[in-house]
Structure prediction request, 86 residues.
Amino acid sequence: MIELSGIVGIPFLKKSRFTGSEKNRCYVLEKQSGEDGDHLAAVIWDGPNCCAATPDEQKTTELFAFTEEGIEAAAAWLNQRSGGIC
Prediction:
Protein backbone atom coordinates (compact mmCIF):
# COMPACT_ATOMS: atom_id res chain seq x y z
CA MET A 1 0.00 0.00 0.00
CA ILE A 2 1.30 3.43 -0.93
CA GLU A 3 1.39 5.72 2.11
CA LEU A 4 2.66 9.25 1.45
CA SER A 5 1.63 10.96 4.70
CA GLY A 6 4.71 12.26 6.47
CA ILE A 7 6.96 11.29 3.56
CA VAL A 8 6.24 13.90 0.92
CA GLY A 9 4.64 17.33 1.23
CA ILE A 10 3.92 20.46 -0.77
CA PRO A 11 7.23 22.19 0.14
CA PHE A 12 9.15 19.22 -1.31
CA LEU A 13 6.97 19.03 -4.44
CA LYS A 14 7.45 22.75 -5.11
CA LYS A 15 11.13 22.02 -5.77
CA SER A 16 11.34 18.38 -6.84
CA ARG A 17 9.41 15.36 -8.05
CA PHE A 18 8.76 12.29 -5.91
CA THR A 19 9.20 8.81 -7.35
CA GLY A 20 8.34 5.44 -5.89
CA SER A 21 7.12 1.95 -6.59
CA GLU A 22 4.75 -0.58 -5.10
CA LYS A 23 5.30 -4.18 -6.17
CA ASN A 24 5.58 -3.93 -9.98
CA ARG A 25 3.96 -0.48 -10.33
CA CYS A 26 6.07 2.66 -10.55
CA TYR A 27 4.80 6.17 -9.93
CA VAL A 28 5.78 9.83 -9.96
CA LEU A 29 4.23 12.82 -8.20
CA GLU A 30 5.16 16.24 -9.54
CA LYS A 31 3.95 19.82 -9.71
CA GLN A 32 2.49 20.95 -13.03
CA SER A 33 1.89 24.64 -13.60
CA GLY A 34 -0.53 25.95 -16.18
CA GLU A 35 -2.75 28.88 -17.01
CA ASP A 36 -5.30 27.65 -14.47
CA GLY A 37 -2.76 27.35 -11.63
CA ASP A 38 -0.72 24.56 -10.10
CA HIS A 39 -1.76 20.93 -10.02
CA LEU A 40 -0.32 17.73 -8.63
CA ALA A 41 0.23 15.20 -11.40
CA ALA A 42 0.28 11.54 -10.41
CA VAL A 43 1.66 9.20 -13.08
CA ILE A 44 1.62 5.42 -12.78
CA TRP A 45 2.92 2.63 -15.04
CA ASP A 46 4.01 -1.00 -14.95
CA GLY A 47 7.70 -1.49 -14.13
CA PRO A 48 10.45 -2.36 -14.23
CA ASN A 49 11.57 0.59 -16.40
CA CYS A 50 11.92 4.14 -15.14
CA CYS A 51 9.57 6.91 -16.27
CA ALA A 52 11.92 8.18 -19.00
CA ALA A 53 12.31 4.69 -20.48
CA THR A 54 8.57 3.94 -20.52
CA PRO A 55 6.52 5.12 -23.52
CA ASP A 56 3.85 7.70 -22.66
CA GLU A 57 1.09 5.45 -23.97
CA GLN A 58 1.92 2.94 -21.21
CA LYS A 59 1.47 5.55 -18.45
CA THR A 60 -1.71 6.80 -16.80
CA THR A 61 -1.85 10.36 -15.44
CA GLU A 62 -4.34 12.02 -13.14
CA LEU A 63 -4.33 15.62 -11.87
CA PHE A 64 -5.13 16.64 -8.30
CA ALA A 65 -5.22 19.85 -6.31
CA PHE A 66 -1.73 21.05 -5.36
CA THR A 67 -2.50 20.77 -1.64
CA GLU A 68 -1.92 18.29 1.18
CA GLU A 69 -5.43 16.98 0.50
CA GLY A 70 -4.44 16.53 -3.13
CA ILE A 71 -1.50 14.39 -2.03
CA GLU A 72 -3.87 12.21 0.02
CA ALA A 73 -6.23 11.91 -2.96
CA ALA A 74 -3.31 11.02 -5.24
CA ALA A 75 -2.19 8.30 -2.82
CA ALA A 76 -5.71 6.85 -2.78
CA TRP A 77 -5.84 6.94 -6.59
CA LEU A 78 -2.42 5.28 -6.87
CA ASN A 79 -3.53 2.55 -4.47
CA GLN A 80 -6.67 1.93 -6.55
CA ARG A 81 -4.59 1.69 -9.70
CA SER A 82 -1.99 -0.64 -8.18
CA GLY A 83 -4.34 -2.88 -6.21
CA GLY A 84 -4.55 -6.52 -7.17
CA ILE A 85 -2.11 -6.39 -10.07
CA CYS A 86 0.83 -8.27 -8.60
The chain has a mean pLDDT of 92. The first strand starts at residue 18 and ends at 22. The chain is about 25% helix and 35% strand.
